[in-house]
Amino acid sequence: MAQVKVYGRREVWAGRQREISDALQACLVSAWGIPEDKRFHRFFLMDPDDFVCPQRSERYLIVEVVCFTGRSDEAKRALVRAISEVFDDVEITVIEMPMVNWGIRGVPAEELSLPYKVEV
Fold first, then answer.
1. Distance between CA 75 and CA 31 in Å, rounded?
2. Are 99 and 109 in contact (CB under 8 A)?
3. H helices within the chain, ranges in order?
4. CA–CA separation, 78 vs 102, rounded Å?
């Protein structure tokens, strides 16, 4: 399980959400084996006054990946490398949560039978 939040400038990225989502999903599938149909991406596109980052280009993106705890450091590095190869001005944060902290379809995630491995 991974939920992705993407932050960027509205005037650069508006209308390109599907393109960004497809690229990020491809990275998650290749680096972590996330099933292609398990896509949970949210976009927070902001005006320049709401996204202050003077040392970055207009194309700067922040990508936060919230996921179950359990992936190896190498798996996290692989995801960071994959995303960085697709986007030229990007910062990635991987935020891990124990499965007991997730509620999915009314139950804690640790009680679910997942069709993919979290330990990578």
1. 7
2. yes
3. 10-13, 17-32, 73-86
4. 24
Q: CB–CB of 106/76 below 8 Å?
A: no
| Dmax (CA) of the chain | 45
Residue 83, helix vs strand vs coil: helix
- Is 10 in contact with 47 (CB distance < 8 Å)? yes
Are 104 and 114 in contact, with CB atoms under 8 Å apart? no
Burial label, 115 (beta-carbon count in 10 A; 0-12, 13-18, 19+):
exposed
Which residues fall within 8 angstroms of residue 101, CB to CB, at 6 or more apart? 109
For 1-44, the pLDDT digits (tens) are 799 999 999 999 999 999 999 999 999 999 999 999 999 999 99
Helix (H, G, I), strand (E, B) or coil at 5: strand
